[in-house]
């Protein structure tokens, strides 16, 4: 069975920069500050479905 993947989208420009394996135990959407290569700075990235 293949693992489900989720994408992290930048809140500023909306680009989907990162992918992670989905965790079924997490009930809320993941929010992490990561570097966005399109914005050129660290911004908040939110899990998309």
Automatic annotation (TrEMBL):
Keywords: Ribonucleoprotein, Ribosomal protein. GO terms for cellular component: ribosome. InterPro entries: Ribosomal_bL33 (IPR001705), Ribosomal_bL33_sf (IPR038584), Ribosomal_zn-bd (IPR011332). SUPFAM superfamilies: Zn-binding ribosomal proteins. Gene3D superfamilies: Ribosomal protein L33. It comes from the Bacteria. Belongs to the bacterial ribosomal protein bL33 family. This is Large ribosomal subunit protein bL33. It comes from Periweissella beninensis.
């Amino acid at each position: 069975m293949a693992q489900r993947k989720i994408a992290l989208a930048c809140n500023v420009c909306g680009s989907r920069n990162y992918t992670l394996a989905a965790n079924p135990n997490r009930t809320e959407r993941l929010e992490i500050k990561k570097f966005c290569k399109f914005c050129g700075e660290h911004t908040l990235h939110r899990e998309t479905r």
